[in-house]
Amino acid sequence: MRAEELIELLEERPFFPLRIHMSNGRTHEIRHPEMAIVGQGVVAIGVHTEGEKLPRIRHFALAHVNEVEVVTDGASPGALPNGKSSP
To answer: What global pTM score does this model have?
Structure first.
């Protein structure tokens, strides 16, 4: 995934939470656009862990992002609000 593509999804209004599918099979959710920082080839995501006051920061290479899915209640998985398909 290119940095510009993820930035575009984070700037969508209204914002819908995103689920990032990684090449190692893990998934990570971005519940608020302010919880992600996108750089050239990398994304940093603030991940809340139960019982902790501050989020942990996780860094991921964008090259390992297989898919970005919009998380919506009642909508089909993978449907992006802007009509585009995820990589």
So the answer is: 0.77
